[in-house]
Amino acid sequence: MGWEAWLTGGLLVLMLAALVAGRWGPDIILMGVLVSLLLAGVIDAGEAVRGFSNGGVITVAMLYVVAAGMRETGAINLITGPMLKKAKTVVSAQARMVIPVVGLSAFINNTPIVAMLMPAIDGFSKRSRIPASKLMLPLSYASILGGVCTLIGTSTNVVVAGMMTHTDVRDALGNPVRLGMFTITWVGVPIAIAGVAYILLFGKWLLPDRSSPEQAGHEQSRQYVAAMRLKDDSPLVGKTVEGAGLRALPGLFLSRIDRDDSTVIAVGPEETLRARDILVFVGKLDSLVDLQQFKGLEPIADGGGGGGYRPNLRLVEAVVSPASPLVGSTVRRAGIRTRYGAVVVAVHRQGYRLRGKVGDIRLRPGDTLLLEAPQGFARQYRDSTDFMLVSEAAQTAALRHERAWIAMGIVLAVVVAISTGLLDPMVAAMAGAGLMILTRCCTGPQARRSVDFQVLIVIAAAFGIERAMSKTGLASSIAHGVVDATAGLGPWALLAVTFAVTTFFTCVITNNAAAVLMFPIALGITQEAGLNFLPFAVVIAVAASCEFSTPIGYQTNLMVMGPGGYKWTDYTRFGGPLTILCGVVCVALAPLVYGPLTAG
Fold this sequence. Notes:
Blueprint (H helix, E strand, L loop, with lengths): L2 H19 L4 H14 L5 H5 L5 H19 L1 H10 L5 H16 L4 H18 L8 H12 L7 H12 L18 H22 L17 E7 L21 E8 L3 E4 L11 E6 L1 H8 L4 E3 L13 E8 L15 H5 L2 E6 L19 E7 L2 H5 L5 E10 L7 H16 L5 H14 L5 H7 L2 H19 L2 H13 L4 H18 L2 H19 L3 H13 L9 H5 L1 H4 L3 H26 L7
Antiparallel strand pairs: 1-4, 1-5, 1-7, 2-3, 2-4, 6-8, 6-9, 7-8
Helix pairs in contact: 1-2, 2-17, 4-7, 4-14, 4-15, 4-16, 4-17, 5-7, 6-8, 6-10, 7-8, 8-10, 9-20, 9-21, 10-24, 14-15, 18-19, 19-20, 19-21, 19-24, 20-21, 21-24
């Protein structure tokens, strides 16, 4: 190896050390390594930036927009609502999420599944007492486990199958060796079963009890009082309180029902809801934000109604200052709608349980108002004497429920186009993202805000680093050295080493690149030794996907890192044993399923 290879290896060691330390973001670290390789002349400018134009990176970016359309229309809730509705414990929530995701991921690419379900899982976590850190990694791992069950479950399987066809791999009798739709299933399904069992048995104990940064704020403990009106076309009309799912909402308490502006009804589980009923809730901010997005409800705190889709309005917290003209006025008579163009959704008063109608609450200095306000409200009134503190929530004011089926139709079309090969994944994702905006399932600003650029930068930078490893011969030298050193231990040991080396490369470069790198090495060794290549091909495909011990081992692992509030060590502690378990199952079953390792 030349000095370029040694430099690349040294930078990789420093990169892994920095990632484990967790002092800087993964995007900063990988970009630092990429720039160092570029300045040293190991790779040229075109090689350094080719990942940013890679179809896979663009596909992931577009899928974020598709997921935004699903989120902004409430379509995700139609899927996850039945899935998580009755989950009360960590294990039950994990089971209700993991098992369906494994099944879906076997036939649908795992990246869009994770992109679409992340917001719903995050919302469920905020409403319940189950931290997102207990759910996000199982979501990613379940999608990966399902992906190894069929040929189309993950792009890595397709890559390996394509390389087998391109190189015209044949067995000892001269027959072509191919990966069919369900060839990998006989090993993939046992791996998925073992992986699901591991997640459900140990997930509660090995996953951290940690909220994401967005969930860790002090506002979680604030108790707001809010009033919502049942619209005439609300799906809740005619249902009982318990049947509508309003009796035991996580983080919320339905304190009373106001009917006909005069009748106050004590809430009972069998009370039937009527159109125009006013439901008075007491609860945490995140739970009230989710209530805002409930189909058929509209805020009426100041006597008005939200009324339908409000994509240009944001939810804002504003603390009333002592000099505010609102002090001493009731919510209804304060003129907040005409003065600020905003609607009061809820009111919080520290140390007091507010009673009576929300519109009749007389405002005091220090009261916190949850407002439905135009974009730019927080910036406009941040320095105003009317409010001491103004902060904008991340969520939009309401969902466009009538567009939910349109969004689901677009997603189904994207999935079918990708799964059947009708369209290239990038083209299908771009078309889906465009349709989400054109059909107003989400707006342009919502689409832009939905893209996680940190994830995209890490994935794109990894392509440049992979190019440096291949160009300098570092990757080939590592693989050949390890495989050659263990060749005398027998074919089973060689199969295990193939899995281990492929897994290692998946840790430092992309999963597809790891498969592409290991394929010719394993093929050459098996041909020289007269071994059956099909078990090795399956092992490479599985190992390139089933890397759970690092956040950069698979793009879905990286996608859940921020929302789950994870550190690098969380992946190693929980995912490391799972990676080993999958390796043991794969190496043990592959020769039994696909014939003996010796080709003769």
